[in-house]
Structure prediction request, 142 residues.
Amino acid sequence: MGELKTKQHDGNVAEFIRSYADSEQKQADSFALLELMRETTGQEPKMWGDTMIGFGQYHYKSARSRQEGDWMRVGFSPRKAAISLYVYSATPEQEQLLPFLGKYKMGKGCIYVKRLADIDREVLKKIILSTLTWLEETYGKE
Prediction:
């Protein structure tokens, strides 16, 4: 079993956003997400791998395989096509919130948005809090 390549490190989050986000809008949205997630999680942002910004972490062990490792509790990445929001855990509460989020697309485990203005930030906060609660119930506190 290989080691997980994406790990938390002490890279400069602000420098990453300024160099990686490919438009002024994506930079502004990324800095707004930093504040929103910092306030909602009570955690400081940390770089994960080359392109992800995470808040908090937990240790998981897969029930289906021998894989285990550390992962961010929530986070995002200002990717070229869209901002990837790593905030979704498929709880029943989140399924009820998604219709009120705004304009987005779903991936396997994340939500993609073109612009932060396309979604309701209060609904996003509720989704984040729901994920944090689920992670704490499933994996414990940090």
User: Anything to note?
Assistant: The beta strands are 8-9, 45-48, 52-61, 68-78, 83-86, 105-106, 111-113. The CA atoms of residues 54 and 116 lie 17 Å apart. The chain has a mean pLDDT of 93. The helical segments are 13-20, 24-41, 92-97, 121-139.
